Amino acid sequence: MARRELVDWFGPGCHGPMELRVPADPRHLATVRMVAQAVAAREGFGPDEVTDIVLAVDEACATLVHASVPGALLTCRLSVAFGTLRADVSTTTFSGGVPNAQSLGWRVLGTVTDSVSAWRYDFDPQRGVDRVVHIDFAKQAAGRISR
Questions:
Q1: Does the global pTM surpass 0.90?
Q2: Sequential pLDDT tens for the chain (147 residues)
Q3: I need a surface site. Which of 6, 31, 38, 109 has the fewest CB within 10 A?
């Protein structure tokens, strides 16, 4: 998958992006979940959709935190455009590998979102072992979001 640029997140009707960076530590996952819940609720997603978004953010973050190097930052970028919430969660991991598509967590992500993908940033010659891994997903609002 190609590297996402900031311009990919903007467009007519876009209300973001909002980016949160916290230490890649399980103790900070509650903060990321609360921000995701607030953004989804503010943008008019229904209660079930908000729950799906929070679950997806939590699962993506937990997957990456588990594989992160000591001292890494976890980045969660949220954006809403055209009734779709898009999230990009990333951190530096030991293995540099993308999550296993057969894992339970990946299946949960695929179930509660409309699209999900994972990719690795490989273009840093200074980093021989660790790599930044991204998990991207999107969730479309079932009803029309009024603004």
A1: no
A2: 455 554 454 444 555 688 999 999 999 999 999 999 999 998 889 999 999 999 999 999 999 999 898 999 999 999 998 889 999 999 988 766 777 888 888 899 999 999 999 988 766 656 555 688 999 999 999 865 444
A3: 6
